Amino acid sequence: MLTMDFKTSKFKQKKVRRQKFAHDQYWFISYTEIYKNSKERDFKTIVKARSAELARKILTERLEENDLFLKVKSFTISMIHGKWQMASLNKPLSISQWESIRSISFPNDWNKLFKFEKERLKGQLTRFNGGPKNLSEENKNRLRKAVKNLNKEYIKNSFKPLCPDLTEECNSEKYLKENKIIKGHASFNNPKHKQMELDFIKSLMRKCGGNIQYASEQAGVSRSVMRRALDRFPKVDWKKDFPLTFKRGQDYSFTKTPEYKAKMSKITKDRKWRPPPNKKGTEAYEKWKKSITPTLESKKLKIKKAHKDNIIKFMRETGFNRKKTAELMGISKLYLENLIYRFKKEDEDFSNEFCSPEIRARNVSEAAKKRHLENRINFFKDNKFSILQAYHQNGQSDSKAAKFLNVSLNTFKNWKGYLDENEV
After folding, report:
1. Is-contact 204 218, C-beta < 8 A?
2. For the segment 365-384, what is each residue's pLDDT rounded down to a tens digit?
3. 32 and 107 assigned to the same domain
4. What is the pTM of this model?
5. What is the DSSP letter of 94?
6. Which of 82, 114, 255, 281 could form a disulfide with 104 if both were Cys (CB 3.0 to 4.6 A apart)?
7. 7 within a domain of the structure (yes/no)
């Protein structure tokens, strides 16, 4: 059964391309023809068909009648609809424009395919790219500089060493003349350089106790650079050979400064809060605990009572719907279930009203009926036009309309009766 839920403001071409309609639609098709002499030409045309796939098939079969034609590629299909706009006009199609579309669409009485060619620009390889661009000298210089910087940073079979001795050697003029490589880069093809770098990294990791962050700080590089340096030697199991044995503790010395103490003192005064005594077991701590406990208990009871009152109120308003009750209370459904479980144990009347199996069964039944009614109404809203069209186009015969829609006669009579009795 087809679904007609097109919205004029949000007409989705992707959706309609998958649909098969009960009547012909006009499809705007852009495509590329390839001929036997390997030449390519880009065209646009309009085809009349019940689906996008059928329009494509009709167009291909018509093009194959040409002897020079080899194949077609790069299809772009969109359906012409009430709010379809031409880029140059930027407004919906008029009646005369619809008449023009109908006249030039294929198939037609003359078996003529009206094609509009879009010529390619010089140097354009396909109809999707824009061809070569004429860059200004400033842009060319900027691109050259970017390429040069990339070559400096990423060069094949080379790396920027962490080892100071190797870095010094790679910066020497003698090395650069012999190897013809960018300054400051060592070569993977040189076993000596590879070994020097590996020995340095191993000694650094041993010294730093396997701590990569600390090792990167000691080498004067970022952690990501250090991680890439380790990945250059995949044969070494760095986690196993250099386990983490050194962890730096958090530096809390800043808390002892007068500025920090003055700042925290001001914050506590603004909050009107007194910190509890530090040592448990002391007389001051026990006195503080005794004074604070009744306050906490009274707060818990107050919150609990408020929750219970809200649950009773909203459960009755929503017809014992727990999901809607949780939304109105601003809590999760799981938390609501926990609260109901607690109150059920404490209050027998609450349990009988909100947790009995009879109420649960009634809620499930009512929800199913409501969902069924909503689905039925939505179905008739989406398919009213198709049902009535099938009825009137087939001589107002129920049997023919049912056969056209591929449903039973009783089903179609039920649909028709519902539409006659109810305004959808």
Report:
1. yes
2. 877 888 888 888 888 888 88
3. yes
4. 0.34
5. P
6. 114
7. no
